[in-house]
UniProtKB/TrEMBL annotation, chain A:
Localization annotation: Cell membrane
Transmembrane stretches, start-end: 26-48, 60-83, 95-116, 136-160, 180-200, 220-246, 267-287, 307-329, 336-361, 381-402
Protein name as catalogued: Molybdopterin oxidoreductase membrane subunit
Entry keyword set: Cell membrane, Membrane, Transmembrane, Transmembrane helix
Domain of life: Bacteria
Family: Belongs to the NrfD family.
UniProt GO cellular component terms: plasma membrane
From TrEMBL, chain B:
Keywords for this protein: 4Fe-4S, Iron, Iron-sulfur, Metal-binding
InterPro entries: 4Fe4S_Fe-S-bd, 4Fe4S_Fe_S_CS, ET_IronSulfur_Cluster-Binding, Menaquinone_reductase_QrcC
Residue ranges of domain 4Fe-4S ferredoxin-type in the record: 12-42, 67-98, 100-129
Gene3D superfamilies: 3.30.70.20
Gene Ontology MF: a single term: 4 iron, 4 sulfur cluster binding
Top-rank taxon: Bacteria
Protein name, as recorded: Molybdopterin oxidoreductase iron-sulfur cluster-binding subunit
Entries under Pfam families matching the protein: Fer4_11, Fer4_2
Keyword S-adenosyl-L-methionine in annotation: no
NCBIfam families: mnquin_red_QrcC
SUPFAM superfamilies referenced in this protein's UniProt entry, alphabetically: 4Fe-4S ferredoxins
Length: 414, 252
């Protein structure tokens, strides 16, 4: 048997896949992007972070924005896991595998970027060794590493279900046993992930000398703690649907029913509505209490084009109200509105993470300083693109060889 | 406000008389040499250059003849309630009884720059590249302060090593190291300020000049209302300068 023939025996039962040649071309394009990013990564490690566009004014930039955004969008995994295994919405079993893989990609990708972003990556474990229990970042370091482990544990049984691997009795049983305990891990995952989505928000909210980001709160948690959790679980399911839709588009095959996608969007939309209510309350309190207390006005929070008010309105109106309408009304039945809603919901969370990361630092708190502009450079773009390419590669391989869509065979019967 | 104000019996503080400052930059230069700040390769990039002490130019934004300017030297404000300390995940920076000076432990810092984000005074500097001293210049390195590797955050520590030296000197002279005479411990910038604009001492010690200076009706601190409670005080008899120290709303 030629290799091309053998490769075909690796596919999940009863599905069709594009030719190996085509798949290889696709992988090589992604590989080139990933290699370029890898090169940038080596340059950063070798010469120091001076090769990036960051500076003493913008200690956080594209990387942190990117991290926060992918982590929020990856939130589909923990939240869907919670709904599927703990609350037992059975229909979600048709999309749960996709969300697990997506979560794994997002978190491992974010970890990759984080290891670049700290000036002393070899000391990263100090977060465990010399933890400062008052720092939200310590909580992030704890939860993010533990949660990545949970995601790996959730991903392994998927790999074990690959047709050839599954023929090995030991691995077959292992996969089965892992499935049995999955609700436990879904629970742990949901806990860890909720906490660190929250602490990521908390990281900004506790910066009391940065009125753009600072928030009062509840007990030790600033409001951003809860807002970040809510926005993540609102956009996470939408992102899963977008990925699913995108995969259907390029593979030309049906992977899940519209019903499942629509359900995911409904969940996302509901969460978005709750988030919208709290976000509006929070914004109101910010404008009328926090800013005046700091001697600042709403208008002083915006500047020029990159930090303009358009961002504020895009985030709070275009990317909140509009998607809520698209996702929670009968409009959702039409693919156009459903996908538009999902895209806007995800865009909103990206804008939110951007303004909290960059605009919060750009806003001059010292009255005699001025707004500064931050532009990421090639090293930051290349490494971020590397993570995206890495995600595409993992997803492509998983789709080709792993049975991640239980409905695929049935939906594509001729 | 998050965090709590920390109080210590000895509270080192700096008082800067803005009306006396000519903006000459001697404080900046003396700080750089005293603390082994690497000769700047690209000092034209103000957002990348390291300057633990930085002199800002302030203006009242009025046209001639009412135009006026002032210079404001800015070391680390050694906040009583430091925004930077509570955020550090690894306790690389801390505020303890060491005269209320906010420390920075370079071998522990992981370089996450969260403290940079939290400090509104922009006093924290990150090592973007490995420090390099041009040949021969390494002879100027001070043995009293460590050289920082790249990838960690550094900042003004009120020349903390000088305090250690002053305490040692007091012990040798048979005096109480916890009750130093005024002037026994001053920072490098204070010592080298030609116009005498900078003063340094224990704010809580009535024998020290700064104890009185901080009570001046013209004294103010930067961004007071944010609750950082700094240990650096500024003095100016010009109202617009005092007002510029904090964000004043039009209605105020
Ligand atoms: S001025 Fe900045 S670095 Fe210094 S103690 Fe205050 S917050 Fe920390
Ligand atoms: S950069 Fe260093 S000192 Fe600053 S918060 Fe991170 S670990 Fe702490």
């Amino acid at each position: 048997m030629s290799f091309i023939e053998i490769e075909k025996t690796w596919y999940p039962e009863g599905v069709e896949r594009c030719s190996l040649g085509k798949f290889m071309k696709w992988l090589s394009v992604l590989g080139v992007v990933a290699l370029y990013g890898f090169f940038a990564m080596i340059v950063c490690f070798a010469y120091g972070l001076g090769v990036t566009g960051l500076d003493n004014y913008f200690g956080f930039g594209l990387w942190i924005t990117f991290d926060l955004a992918v982590i929020a969008l990856g939130a589909g995994a923990f939240f869907t896991g919670l709904l599927r295994y703990i609350i037992r919405i059975d229909e979600l079993k048709n999309i749960i595998n996709l969300t697990v893989i997506k979560g794994f990609i997002c978190y491992s990708g974010a970890m990759l970027i984080l290891s670049l972003d700290v000036g002393q990556p070899i000391r990263s474990w100090f977060g465990y060794w010399h933890p400062n229990v008052h720092s939200m970042l310590t909580e992030v370091i704890f939860c993010i590493t533990c949660y990545l482990m949970v995601l790996i544990i959730e991903y392994i049984p998927l790999i074990l279900e690959q047709k050839q691997i599954n023929k090995i009795p030991f691995l077959h049983n292992l996969a089965h046993q892992m499935h049995v305990v999955m609700p436990l891990f879904a629970g742990i995952g949901a806990f860890l992930s909720t906490f660190h989505q929250g602490s990521l928000g908390g990281m900004y909210g506790v910066m009391f000398a940065r009125p753009y980001a600072f928030r009062d709160g509840f007990f030790i948690w600033p409001w951003t703690f809860f807002l970040f959790v809510l926005s993540a679980i609102a956009s996470g399911p939408c992102m899963t649907v977008l990925i699913c839709g995108f995969m259907e588009k390029i593979t030309g095959r049906k992977l899940t029913t519209y019903r499942v996608k629509s359900l995911m969007c409904k969940i996302g939309g509901t969460m978005l509505l709750i988030y919208t209510v709290f976000k509006y309350l929070d914004t109101w309190a910010w404008i009328n209490d926090i800013l005046p207390r700091a001697g600042l006005t709403f208008d002083q929070m915006f500047y020029g084009m990159v930090y303009g008010k358009w961002l504020f309105f895009s985030e709070l109106v275009l990317c909140l109200i509009v998607p809520v309408i698209c996702l929670l009304t009968p409009l959702r039945k039409k693919p156009f509105f459903m996908y538009t809603g999902a895209i806007l919901a995800c865009a909103g969370v990206v804008i939110n993470r951007y303004v909290f990361t960059v605009q919060a630092l750009a806003q001059p708190v010292l009255p005699f300083t001025k707004w500064e502009i931050y532009t990421p450079n090639w090293a930051e773009w290349a490494t971020s693109l590397m993570v995206i390419a890495y995600g595409f590669i993992i997803m492509s391989l998983s789709y080709r060889y792993l049975p991640i869509f239980p409905q695929e065979v049935g939906l594509n019967k001729k | 406000m998050s965090g709590q104000k920390k109080e210590f019996p000895i509270t080192w503080g700096m008082v800067i008389d803005i009306d006396k400052c000519t903006g000459c930059g001697a404080c900046m230069a003396s700080c750089q040499t005293e603390n082994n700040v690497e000769p700047q390769r690209e000092a034209s990039n103000k957002l990348r250059a390291t300057s633990w002490m930085l002199v800002y130019e302030l203006t009242n934004d009025k046209a001639f003849p009412n135009h006026d300017i002032a210079y404001l030297p800015r070391p680390c404000q050694q906040c009583g309630n430091p925004p930077c300390v509570s955020v550090c995940p690894v306790i690389a920076t801390d505020k303890n009884e060491d005269g209320g000076i906010v420390s920075q432990v370079y071998p522990r810092c992981i370089g996450c720059r969260y403290c940079v984000a939290a400090c509104p005074y922009h006093v924290r500097y990150f090592g973007w590249y490995d420090p390099i001293w041009p040949e021969g210049m390494e002879k100027t390195l001070s043995p009293m302060t460590s050289v920082r590797p790249r990838g960690v955050v550094e900042k003004c520590t009120f020349c903390h090593h000088r305090w250690t030296q002053a305490k040692d000197a007091a012990r040798v002279a048979g005096k109480d190291p916890d009750n130093l005479d005024d002037g026994a411990y001053v920072t490098s910038c204070v010592q080298n300020c030609p116009s005498g604009a900078l003063a340094f001492g224990d704010i809580k010690n009535p024998k020290h000049k700064v104890h009185e200076l901080v009570k001046s009706p013209y004294a103010f601190r930067l961004l007071e209302r944010l609750g950082t409670d700094t240990q650096v005080y500024y003095i100016s008899r010009r109202e617009w300068v005092r007002k510029l120290g904090d964000n004043y709303l039009k209605s105020e």
